[in-house]
Amino acid sequence: MGSASFLKRAQALLRIRNQLARECLAELLAVFVLILITLSGSAQMVTSFGTRGNLLSAYLAGALAVMVAVYTAGGVSGAHLNPAFSLSMCLLEQFPWWKFPIFLAVQTSGSFIAAGATYALYYDAIWHYSNGTLTTSGPRETASIFATYPSDYLSLANGFLDQVIGTGLLILGILAIMDTRNKGVPKGLEPVVVALLVFSIEISMGSNCGCPMNPARDFGPRLFTYVAGWGAEVFRWVEGRGRGGGWQ
């Protein structure tokens, strides 16, 4: 009885009643889960020299991560996960504008923290693979584990177009899935269908830049690599950098 009473008191103290705080914490956790799984799929592929993963497995990890993240926070924050989606909801008057900068900060923070967790998880593997040097280019570069970089043939204009089309298709697909006037997705399976949408975009439009359709997913981990020792080169567009390694 005493133990049960203590647990009830603890739950009462820890319960968050403010709706905005609940939404922010849910969004933070969901983005953390999304990016942790996504980056870990990339890290496993890169640091194992492709023996324990390839682009297809990494893309699949990213798509399934979307599914897990939506299930994690969908009932609390709506599981936006992506500033581009939050902005779209604002433009469609389905999300208040004053919440947008808050969600943007939360989503970016979740991505940054997840990048740190991935770095800690694969710390030994990254340093072994890179021969003790954190670089953004060359045969042993590791920056593309965390952020997306253009293929060596890609121009800035073509890269911009790639992102506009990829992100636009993602938002269009999600809005179509959510539209109750369309043929409905069985209740509870919406995250699965969104994951399939993400996967279809990844395997069809990933070669140019790696499909970084989520600004928070790209900027948060990129900022982490800058802080963690890869240097300011992570923010520069450099031809020949190579791999491209990002998802949604």
From TrEMBL:
Gene3D superfamilies: Glycerol uptake facilitator protein. The keyword Transmembrane applies. GO terms for cellular component: basolateral plasma membrane. InterPro entries: Aquaporin-like (IPR023271), Aquaporin_3 (IPR023275), MIP (IPR000425), MIP/Aquaporin (IPR050363), MIP_CS (IPR022357). One of its GO terms (molecular function) is glycerol channel activity. It catalyses: glycerol(in) = glycerol(out); H2O(in) = H2O(out); urea(in) = urea(out). The chain crosses the membrane at residues 20-39, 59-81, 102-122, 160-178. It is a multi-pass membrane protein. It is found in: Cell membrane. PROSITE patterns: MIP. Keywords: Cell membrane, Glycoprotein, Membrane, Repeat, Transmembrane, Transmembrane helix, Transport. Aquaglyceroporins form homotetrameric transmembrane channels, with each monomer independently mediating glycerol and water transport across the plasma membrane along their osmotic gradient. Could also be permeable to urea. Also participates in cell permeability to H2O2 and H2O2-mediated signaling. In skin, transports glycerol to the epidermis and stratum corneum, where it maintains hydration, elasticity, and supports lipid biosynthesis for barrier repair. In kidney, contributes to the reabsorption of water, helping the body maintain proper fluid balance. Homotetramer; each monomer provides an independent glycerol/water pore. Could also exist in other oligomeric states. Belongs to the MIP/aquaporin (TC 1.A.8) family. This is Aquaporin-3. It comes from Himantopus himantopus. The lineage of its organism: Eukaryota, Metazoa, Chordata, Craniata, Vertebrata. The gene is Aqp10.
